[in-house]
Design a protein that fits this description.
Blueprint (H helix, E strand, L loop, with lengths): L3 H9 L7 H12 L5 H10 L4 H9 L6 H12 L1 H4 L12 H12 L3
Helix pairs in contact: 1-3
């Protein structure tokens, strides 16, 4: 999803929460069902010391803490990602299966 760098900058410097453009983009990430919760978790993992400040500004909840409230926030905002077992984004296949799949692709199905 575009804009990860901008959000990374927001989490690196929570003073950017004064610029509503950054908060709007984070809100869009939270509300967009095509964005995995892992993206938000990754931002928090990269800048754990700033997550509380960013989410407090976004949600206008001065008592919010990521450690206590973060997963519940993701469950509420990313419901579809919590209703089914996650599928792997990469699947390993053996050499023979890979060969068969390549051959099938060359024959135009």
């Amino acid at each position: 999803m575009p804009g990860f760098g901008r959000l990374d900058a927001l989490f690196a410097d929570p003073a950017l929460t004064r610029n509503r453009t950054y908060l709007t983009q984070l809100r869009e990430y939270l509300n967009d069902d095509s964005v995995s919760p892992m993206v938000v978790r990754r931002l928090v993992q990269r800048h754990p010391e700033n997550a509380d400040a960013v989410f407090r500004a976004l949600l206008c909840k001065p008592a919010f803490t990521w450690e206590r409230d973060g997963e519940e926030l993701l469950r509420r905002r990313k419901k579809s990602h919590h209703t089914h077992e996650p599928l792997p984004s990469i699947t390993a296949v053996g050499a023979r299966l890979a060969e068969l799949l390549r051959a099938e692709g060359h024959h135009g199905r």
